[in-house]
Sequence to fold (129 residues):
Amino acid sequence: MNALLVFIFRFIKFALVGSSGLIIDFGITYLLKEKLKVYKFLASSIGFTLAASSNYIFNRIWTFHSTNPQIFLEYSSFLIISVIGLLINNSILWMFNEKVKLNFYVAKVIATIVTVFWNFLANFFITFR
Fold:
């Protein structure tokens, strides 16, 4: 198969896995914060970590078909890239919402698009190379 098509299909799979992670993140955060009354930032951190972990597993198996036996190093790389992505996302969101005065959700869409590309490319070239 053409290398560009493989790249595009992997990106689409990565985005689908990310969508499932979004559901996990928000679902766990909501459950912990609203139902179990866990402190909101702790609830959000747990939701993010569980979503990133499930994203790693699905991307390892389905998106990138990784057979790397060094799972701990691979997972650590994925998690570090995810945390950097979270920092990029929050920075762009803050800049466009607070400084440029764009609507919060418009800024969030921009931040999400940039972050998805960061996460995919960094994982494509580093974690699952």
Observations:
- The chain has one domain: 3-127.
